[in-house]
């Protein structure tokens, strides 16, 4: 059996450390781990830490300032709508050149409370709702195929826009689509869920295959991957040091490249063709 | 007014993806998918920063228009896109548009403050409401709320966001029980170098201007005439004063569509070639949306009928921008063009936003004229094609303005709010 890969789970205070210290950021970028979860404490049931940052805002910084590090942005439908979330996900997919993905949880521990405990957009805060978000984000990212961008100066056609389809999503979040940007050239973003019942995702964290191990505990070796999770009061330096030690002790290094390739995942399957969002473009007259 | 205005103009660039003209993507400087290429966006940020510009703006809406002939409808999400550009720049301010109609105030407050912290205090939020049924259908609704309802939501939304930003500083929970939002909680995002993002407002409706006077620190307006601009400048500054603020707390920056060349003739040729390379139906469609009337039904070689110029039947359901419509109608009434003449004329004079076709020297004259007249605190420049138009702003326009004492030589402030405050004091308010 091949050795497991290593992944890292950061809590709020470590997001502040990672983005505030160029030395730590460079050290993180050098680590051949599979991926890093940007704020696992947001959705794992932890009490909120003293500090955190929005996960996609951290992802935007990592996409720009690093070359190798891969990451999962963390979100929940408690206050985030899947259309808005899909837009940030596809944007990070382009800007990170495929190094990013999305981890969806049912609840956000940092979120404000409402009198009736409801979500901002209506659906209940359940695993089923989180699964509906994953389904929506995937369909939206695939609503605009990258190959439709042709940039033909002869005909004046930039995009064969009749190949863009409505997502026509029903259920908890009815969304017509399409998305405002094309699918990244590296394919639809990797989607991850938290624990059992995660729905149609590429990766389940906290299940039998990718096991969560608290920093300081002995990680298993007979699994696909180990997610080493720091508690809020532990430092990023401690986490990176432990990761460096485990990689030196036989955890499988994962070479640089897109997240989907790093995890050995096939390209996401595409739904059958949807309703065309626009008419077939034709060469045009000028005024 | 005989006294000469002191201080410097504010200069922003409204990055309409590749440029405001549909044919911008055909520039030989661009690849077919530059609009999603991180190198393209990084170059925009670095070039603007080389010119010590105050800010770069990104428009937005949660809906895709047809990108068949034009990259303008294609939109990466602005907080992520500008978050990326902020990470490769150090001084330039960055303004992201985000809708109050289709966001949640807690989520957006946390995201904007995080980005502001990460950018070293260079973030701004352009507060907009969203129009159009197509956007509504991305959020499970058949259509958007009526205009007044959208602005009521925008006002409460902005109040919640500001209270939450306070909570990040004080550590005290916000208990908000309003008409539209009810929540209890606080942000745990570290403070940013400028405290909190700068607020901007872009609408020209009465409720939009009222929101601007109450909370905005910058207004991205649409002005076609200098007299109209002076009037709106004084109106918004007066509204700020009525809300107990200093008129200097709100800066006015109208958009200005640009085609620049080393001679006026070259600039006109550039503009004509870019217009001719794009589809004519675009100008007709654009006009239809802007005036709330199907312009394809108009005779191209006849003047605009009076009933078309009259106010839309129901301002609550009219989907266009009230500010744009007002400035377009005023311009048509002034010169009485045929429809074809108007559509061609707007190539040089702009439509909705005012336009400028000429040399950098002439542009500097225009900026100085409006600035000295007390019509603006600065401009939000909108080049026809960013890939080379932004370089001309940085390398040619800015040095001219510096020589005239209208612009700084180096950054003297390092946050967006700092840049705004360093601009010239308000002018001509009596």
UniProtKB/TrEMBL annotation, chain A:
InterPro entries: Diverse_substr_monoxygenases, Luciferase-like_sf. Keywords: Flavoprotein, FMN, Monooxygenase, Oxidoreductase. SUPFAM superfamilies: Bacterial luciferase-like. The keyword NADP does not apply. This is Luciferase-like monooxygenase. It comes from Amycolatopsis ultiminotia. The lineage of its organism: Bacteria, Bacillati, Actinomycetota, Actinomycetes, Pseudonocardiales.
From TrEMBL, chain B:
Residues 36-375 form the Luciferase-like domain. It holds the Pfam family Bac_luciferase. The chain crosses the membrane at residues 7-25. Keywords: Flavoprotein, FMN, Membrane, Monooxygenase, Oxidoreductase, Transmembrane, Transmembrane helix. It comes from the Bacteria. Coiled coil: none annotated. Belongs to the NtaA/SnaA/DszA monooxygenase family. PANTHER family: ALKANESULFONATE MONOOXYGENASE-RELATED, C2H2 FINGER DOMAIN TRANSCRIPTION FACTOR (EUROFUNG)-RELATED. This is LLM class flavin-dependent oxidoreductase.
